[in-house]
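Next up, sample data.

:::
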Amino acid sequence: MKFFPAGIVFAGLLATAAVVSANVVVFNFPLSGDQEVPPVTTPATGFASVMLDMDSNFLTWDISYQDLKAPLTGAHFHGPADFGVNASVLVNLFPTTGVTSGTIAGSTTLAEAQGFSANEIRDFIAGGMTYINLHSDGAQGGHGAGELRGQVVPEPRTYGLMAGILALGAAFYWRRRRC
């Protein structure tokens, strides 16, 4: 019976090893006018879910938004930029323009853009140095300025899961070593 708990731990480690080796980072975050630089007053709201496979540089996104002041004129990942800083376009999201509510879903394998390598772009995204911007002519300044923005920041549970797995592995190692 002593082996049973250790066997469960080992099986758990094997089952979660695929998650760790896939090296997928998940991002879920709101989009709002107050994250724009400068902040904009808008009734619009949005939410983005982004996944990035760090091994293959494969990026997917699913964005929903509603109540833009004017029809959507564009949507992009911008970077490198921290909160409160504007930056150049890294990845075009190719949205359906001319609507004030909707969804934007897509994927791409990151490639060179704006003079950055695919790995640099991947690192900007994974490191929280990018943001999604939805543009409309209804934003302050008009002419396709940003109306909704959201900083791409990894979910705490993604890193928490990875840290938990490492801690579990260390505990298993030390327990086994003591026996």
Notes: Residues 99 and 152 are 24 Å apart (CA to CA). The chain has one domain: 24-155.
